[in-house]
Queue: 3 jobs
Job 1
Amino acid sequence: MSLSILQTVRPGGVIEIAPRGEIDVDTAYEVKESIAEVLAKGRPARIELNMRLVTFIDSVGISAMVAGFQTAEVSGVKLVVTEPSRFVHRQLWVTGLLGLFGAPEPYYAGAAATPEVLPGA
């Protein structure tokens, strides 16, 4: 499977990088390059790596994320992971890197669409 990456400018000077597909030995460099590209253009308030649509990540992909985190940190920019898929969340937890990326909760499809029911309502 291939990897596609969408970059979005969000309010407050935040750049969202959203990979879709598998991040592995063949595609990990794309994540690292995407982070470097954002930093080459300027200094965003924060970079959010939205991992909701990542279906697989291997050790090379995790390594690329860490390298991107370090590159951002050297530039004075905070890089966090948002909405990791359950697979990504598990890999970050197992490797002990979940806290490095902001300790995000895993993304559950439909979770945001479910209204909260209050007692007595």
Note: Residues 59-74 form the longest helix (16 residues).
Job 2
Amino acid sequence: MSSVPPSGEPAPPDGALPASSLTGLGTRPFGIYVHVPFCATRCGYCDFNTYTASDLGLTGSDDPASPASWLEGLRRELDLAAGVLGMPPSADTVFLGGGTPSLLGAEGLVAVLDAVRGSFGLRPGAEVTTEANPESTTPELLAAITDAGYTRLSLGMQSDVDHVLAVLDRRHTPGAAARVVGEALDAGIGHVNLDLIYGTPTETDADLRRSLDAVLASGADHVSAYSLIVEEGTALARRVARGELPMPDDDVLADRYEIVDDTLGAAGFGWYEVSNWARSTDARCHHNRIYWGGGDWWGAGPGAHSHVGGTRWWNVRHPARYSAALAEGRSPAEARERVTPEEAHLEQVLLELRTVDGLAAEALDGPGRAAGEQAAREGLLAPDAWADGRAVLTRRGRLLADGIAISLAGA
């Protein structure tokens, strides 16, 4: 995972973890996240830790911010990680995110997976996902990564409508994502996700339905759909501030969510997390379920976040600083923190409540259970599930998930 880092204590130069964090390592699901910070262009809505070639001022492949230097740094971090963990578990899942991992090309993507195998190994049947953009993905790339062991592709579609893609500063054209889905399935990739964004200024209900029709016709077996958030500091936020585009309306976003849920549900997709739908249990993203279930993962790459046994840490954000630290034999971790019991409880409620299995009522204290009773009476939690001892959101509850979670957690 990669995001704006919180505050924390300095991380040790060798990356060592408290002994208590290593207790039980391997008994919990374990994943590897690899952050690829490179993009061809910057989308106006994006506030992720990503860089274009012009942002980095690259002068050659030996530049400390170059993809080649990043890959060498990644190999060193994975080796460091294996040493820090002592007897590192084989990875249940690997997820390459970004950024645009497909910009690495087939050779780069294969090299990343080889590095993970060399440092950690993969469990039998491991899920291996890479994100990609349609314009940087080819049949040859898909064939090569399938042969290398990738099992899942996650494509940034966002919309299938010209004017919506233009507002989002996306480079691909309508139909491109669906074409790549077909190419991926032909190459033997087992599962394909399409990312959608709904609520973009100028988007209509008809535009969203058109995008959903394209998703369903593509053959993808997983959809992640997120409401547009206007993040501070982005080009989109500046356009909204200047009055060029309206701020997304909460009521419109709720209506659009219901369109997504109705359309996907009618086509045989089931929701299993508030923003994620899959055609089958096998099609669900098992890597994300490690995050939602409080498992362990090592996040490698600039700005990547990690969590092992109640300790979480995050790397320096700039690719040049990341590569330089590892070249000098130092951990790239910028800071870390120990998760308090109160924080762990809040995160458990916030994350587990968002899933179709919900949250065990026994995880709540007295006031939390009282809040759950009230939410069930109001139709925000499924009454039958609550009676059986689980807090499971209704669809109306999904629209208010964070607020309900906070009331249940007593935060």
Note: The chain is about 40% helix and 20% strand.
Job 3
Amino acid sequence: MYMTLQMEENYKMLAKTLFGFEDILAKELTQLGAMQVEKGVRNVSFVGDKGFMYKANLGIRTAIKILKPIHSFRVTKEDDLYKNVKNMKWEDYLKPTGSLAVDATVHNSVFTHSLYTALKTKDAIVDRFRDREGVRPDVDLRFPDLKINVHIDRQLCTISLDTSGESLHRRGYKTATNIAPINEVLAAGLIMMSGWDGQTDFMDPMCGSGTMLAEAAMIACNIPPNLMRKEFAFERWEDWDVDLFEKIEESLLKKTRDFHHKIIGYDKSPSAVTKAKENMKNAHLDELVHIQHEDFFKTQKSGNEKLHMVFNPPYGERLENLNVEEFYGNIGTTLKHGYPNTNAWLITSNLEALKSVGLRPSRKIKVFNAKLEARLVKYEMYEGSKKTKKQDN
């Protein structure tokens, strides 16, 4: 029997995330029941058992990956990596005829190239099997039985098992995408940062393929974000426990809640509307989310109820034929004249363009959209005169 370790015992894990999302991720993990939660940079470490590892992969919205560290050691010269990796009991994790993939992150003067580091790690594992068994595992970058993560920071090398496989932003509901769609983990994190709690109507007035809408609906109803995924890496492990996984899934589904407001999406592109509707159907959210073919600048809010708005205005390749100043000016004008009693949040990497909105943001939060530094900004639109309203933080 492989995996001789007592996996049901508690062990340390690491959830990787995007810059600026560490606080939200730590809160999510704590609420889910993680122990010893500690924030790092773009990651949060925590302690849990195998069941919790399944739970974290299914239920955490702002994690990109859940890693399980299994060994760490010092590297001061190149040979240290090979020797230490080769001495590890890989037969506890992988059959000699299995397959593996290695990815690496390096911040080190000896190992400066991540691909080379991954290759040396793979060589050490393969050589151990060849020496012991006379056969060796294959490399399969797409669907390996075991995905291994190597992290070298200065002189400390940590070897982890990647429990997730493909990045957790790949929720499984999105088959149709628009140009430059927003990452699902980023969308969920922005919505959570904005304080959305499902107690008001929600709108994305430039919804593209519908990512914000889907994530907002799942947050409102407390639906686990990764139910639709085809596979997690741990399903190929030797100790995969399908009964335990199904129990965890069932326990998370019991915690879903009803939603009594509206989630609305607009887009002026008919093809975006079609794609967004298709994605909502895939996610089984089409009864909750209402998507319309509308130009936001020609709309106004219906009714007096509080509205929570989060959106990602077009940028870069989506802005080719647009006058940026005029476009952002129109955002400000539309919010000011058409959307009273609204908390409007938008993310942009065009920091100069924000000046054209013509409204003073009540909050600005630094985030990254892919590699681009961006700001999540909040505009509070009041009903009637601002002087008569107490500022809502």
Note: The mean pLDDT is 91.
